[in-house]
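Translate sequence into structure tokens.
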Amino acid sequence: MRIAVCLLLMSLWGSGAMAKELVAAVERVHLGPGAIDFMARVDTGAAISSLHATDVRLLQSGNQQQVRFVTENHLGEQLTLTLPVVDTMRVRSAQGSERRYVVLLPVGFRGTQRAIKVNLKNRGHMAYRLLLGRNWLSGYYLVDVDRPTSPE
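Result follows.
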């Protein structure tokens, strides 16, 4: 029975039904409508991705809340975005608890683009301004920590 299950899984893997691309622990991605590049840390421990954001301002547009913020990549390139707030979340850390806005952000990688949920936080003091969590990985990628970063 175990052999039959293994053979079935192997055949599905080979057919592409379960195939996932391998990614490194750090990858270059393109963000937002302005399409600036970010070196992003891939973090399997984070449920939701997190983006560096400063000057975060909540705007009310009818019944829809929007947030305007500035993000900046590792090269100092800035992008100002105004996006609908899709959720808020409370994040607990060693420094305490804080509320963060969550937006849908287009993330481009290896020629494809998907909108994923990201929470907004000032990550200016961190090595990576973008953290890609399981919501970016799930169903698409597997992390190989020995793999070099894509040259993209």
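Note: Residues 2-15 form the longest helix (14 residues).
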